[in-house]
Amino acid sequence: MDAAERKRKIIIGGALIATLIAALLVEDEDELAFQMPEAPLQPARTAQEKNRKPEPNTAQLDVSKLGQRKFNPQAGELFASTTWMPKRAQLDDHEEHEIKIVQPVKIAPPAPTAPPLQFKYAGKTIADNQTWVFLSQSGENFITKLGGKINDQYRLDAINDDTVTVTYLPLNVKQTLTINQKLAGNFR
Predict the structure, then answer these.
(1) Integer Cα distance of 147 and 154 in angstroms
(2) Total-model pTM
(3) Torsion (CA) 9, 12, 15, 19 in degrees, nearest 10
């Protein structure tokens, strides 16, 4: 056993002994605190004294002298409902008859549109007179040729040095992806 371990055991043992002594002292104080002082015994009351009703105390406060509580009108209603809506304007009698009910205008929902292209151009290669394009989307890579499908939702229609044209198949909408030559690689 090295010196550091021995020192640690001595400190822990000392703390244990101090805790035990403190617990014993607290127990002794609790026993002293709960001892009841002896009180002189009073004679037992008779059955007549027990059954006798106490006489009403006529010196009690007369409640009618208290009066009614006065409320301050500036305090407002205690249980009033609150709302953020503005109060409606009061209408005169002749204005009530002139109110017209306006039917809400039904607006047609906007025409569906293709989602923005999430593809990134990774490169292209030409093999056997076919151009193959490498695209990525959310960490997933796609390789396709002209006329091929990408992700069953897009079709590759055209490719040149600056753009890739695809068609969003559910709506038959053409979209263009711009090629950034600095970031993408071209394989030939």
Answers:
(1) 10
(2) 0.41
(3) -120
